[in-house]
Amino acid sequence: MPLELLGGLLGLLLGVLFLLAMPFDVGFRLKKDDSFRLQLTVAWAYGLLSKELDRPSGKPKAKKAATKKSRHGQARDGKGNFRAAMAFMRSPGMSARLLRLVQDMWQQIRVRQLSLHLTVGLDDPAATGRLFGALAPALLLSDRLTRLDLQLEPDFSQPILQAEGGGQIRLIPITIIGIMVAFLLSPASWRALVVAVRAGRS
Fold this sequence. Notes:
By secondary structure, this protein is of the alpha+beta class. The protein has one domain. Helix content is 50%, strand content 27%. A six-stranded mixed sheet has the order 3-2-1-6-4-5, covered by helices on one side. Strand 1 and strand 2 (36-44) form a beta hairpin. Helix 3 (94-108) packs across helix 4 (125-143). The longest helix has 23 residues, at 68-90. 5% of the residues are buried.
């Protein structure tokens, strides 16, 4: 390989690494009930570049009546996805690996303010209970994090998703990418992925 080409590739790589090492500042406010609203402010390189995004709330669009066959198909797909997600989270070693991922990510994020209040209910009350049982370790961890205000409430009476929160955080993209790559390449993640695929097909 010519030295000029090698030098160009090395310079390009160093340039990408330099850009990924510049911090991102993210501020957001969100609210989800019958509609959804998200206000997002993103600044890069200590405010050198910034962008404000605002998705206004709106009434849900009326949907055409689905056929009985399509409703059955959607329900079947939803149950398959739920089984796959639960199998992934319950795979041996995955709970500990997820906790470690949360801890590693949290250590790399500088939080000025972060709050999230959720109310979640699924079609089946038993499924709601299983979901919260699977999330219990993460909720226990959040109680020990002084910079996070996380509240998660189950609703066993109806399928529902309500959320309200906001925050201001700073992160370094290159460190986040490294943590995610390490998580995805870990043996626990590979085993959990295989289990999830099998559960989704069953």
